[in-house]
Amino acid sequence: MQLHTGQIRICAEGALPWSYLHRHATARERAPMLFSKLRVWDTEHNNGVLIYLLVPEHAIEIVADRGLACCVAPGEWEALVSQLAVHLREGRYEEGLAQAVDAVSARQAVHFPRLGAGMAHANELPDAPVVR
Questions:
Q1: Spatial distance between the Cα atoms of 12 and 54, rounded to a whole number of angstroms
Q2: pLDDT in tens, 7-51
Q3: Taking the CB of the first residue and of the last residue of the chain, which one, N or C, has fewer CB atoms within 10 A?
Q4: What is the pLDDT of residues 54-106, one digit of tens each?
Q5: 78 burial class (0-12, 13-18, 19+ CB within 10 angstroms)?
Q6: Contact indicator for 73, 39 with CB cutoff of 8 Å
Q7: Neighbouring residues of 74: CB distance < 8 A, sequence distance ≥ 6
Q8: Is 76 left (phi over 0), alpha (psi -120 to 50) or beta?
């Protein structure tokens, strides 16, 4: 049972597109573009979160929409990224991503709880990870 109205997307890329490589852009620059391209911003309560992995660079970025970003301190996101990085370095991808999703969900449940036990909540974004 989902305890919040938030939305979470995971995107993993095997490389940056040529247009990013050509101008020496980073995963930090790519993540907001994918946040937009995957329409994570397009949720009713502006509480979508993108967990972005640039696999060859071992880069992890978390982009939270404005509704949630104003409620969660940057240090909390940094700690989440650090924990996920440890799991990924140890090859525990599934466990690390599951814990990251749980951690984001916990923050969403605090700030955007689903009201009413019987109240259905529409899934606004696809659940399947995006792998490029």
A1: 6
A2: 999 999 999 999 999 999 999 999 999 999 999 999 999 999 999
A3: N
A4: 999 999 999 999 999 999 999 999 999 999 999 999 999 999 999 999 999 99
A5: exposed
A6: no
A7: none
A8: alpha
